[in-house]
Design a protein that fits this description.
Blueprint (H helix, E strand, L loop, with lengths): L10 E8 L10 E2 L5 E2 L7 E2 L19 E5 L8 H9 L5 E4 L8 E8 L4 E5 L2 H4 L7 E7 L11 E3 L4 H4 L5 E3 L4 E6 L1 E3 L18 E2 L5 H6 L10 E8 L5 E14 L10 E8 L4 E5 L5 H5 L10
Parallel strand pairs: 12-18, 13-15
Antiparallel strand pairs: 1-5, 1-9, 2-3, 4-5, 5-8, 6-7, 6-9, 7-8, 10-17, 11-12, 14-17, 15-16, 16-17
Length: 300
């Protein structure tokens, strides 16, 4: 088993609320081909889009699966709101603490930068009872997590308990870890968010303007919750191109029509050198591993 500092990682509660759906100005936007569009986007309780679903093909833009949450919409970029985003890690337990769905549990599935949302998957019986006034408590656990035998691999935004369920193994002879991923993304496709240093609170986008290349690489099959490898991208102290670097992330929002945008990826593991070896596995998805989203078992 890979040795870690999981026993030293601090668990801290943070509490947010359901984020209202946003539509800046209500006017049309223009896609990468110069065509205007007017579609649903971020926020709210999204009933029919879940982790495990395809990230492409929706009549929407930057669609967030499940429940979008935030601490304070009027102070979106203030330290307390950023703290809510930072402490909530992928795989953390979330509990509804108000309203008719009080007590129902869910799982954190992503951070969406810019809008500063934390995305959470809840079962359908909770979604039916939730309102936009409901509050959610998250047991923030993961920031500060390290792999003791691999000091040059950095971990962000990942619940240690999820790490040990992802099927990650060691190749001690090579001195690398092997991580199952749904696909490998060329670094040249990474767009909006490149250059950002907000590794602990946001995401960055896979550019999808070149539809032919996206199809050739099979990226149109990407699902919300897919674990992916990004080649030649360094996510240690900021998002940038570096030959030989590798980043492991998770797909958190849908495809987008704007130039430079596409499905969003939250950073989980990063190395400036090839210390992480991606292994293709189509079931390398949060829904498949934790049995959430489309993989939640129906109560009988």
């Amino acid at each position: 088993m890979i040795k870690t500092n999981k026993e030293k990682v601090v668990m801290i509660s943070v509490q947010g609320k359901v984020a209202n759906p946003m539509k800046r100005g209500g006017q049309h936007m223009v896609d990468s081909e110069g065509v205007p569009f007017l579609l649903p986007g971020t926020g709210g309780i999204t009933y029919n889009v879940k982790v495990g679903d395809r990230a492409f093909g929706w009549a929407g833009d930057h669609v967030e699966p499940g429940v979008s949450t935030i601490l304070n919409e009027e102070k979106r970029y203030d330290p307390p709101t950023r703290g809510y985003n930072f402490y909530a890690c992928i795989g953390n337990e979330a509990v509804i603490v108000t309203g008719d769905a009080k007590g129902k549990k869910g799982v954190v599935t992503g951070h969406h930068g810019g809008i500063e949302h934390v995305l959470i998957d809840f079962p359908d019986d909770a979604l039916k009872k939730m309102t936009l006034d409901d509050k959610i408590l998250i047991k923030g656990y993961g920031q500060g997590f390290r792999l003791l035998g691999y000091p040059d691999i950095y971990v962000y935004n990942l619940d240690p308990r999820l790490f040990f369920k992802m099927g990650i193994t060691e190749n001690k002879k090579k001195g690398v870890i092997r991580v199952p991923v749904a696909c490998i993304i060329p670094g040249m496709l990474m767009g909006s968010g490149v250059g950002s240093t907000s590794l602990g609170t946001g995401d960055y986008d896979i550019m999808t303007t070149d539809k032919g290349l996206i199809k050739k690489l099979g990226l149109e099959k990407l699902r919300f919750g897919d674990f992916v490898a990004i080649k030649d991208h360094d996510n240690i102290f900021g998002r940038s191109y570096r030959k030989g670097a590798i980043t492991i992330g998770i797909v958190i929002h849908s495809d987008c029509k704007l130039a430079g945008h596409g499905p969003g990826v939250t950073t989980l593991l990063a190395a400036s050198t090839p210390l992480i070896e991606p292994v293709i596995k189509r079931t390398a998805n949060l829904a498949d591993i934790l049995k959430v989203g489309r993989r939640r078992r129906k109560k009988t």
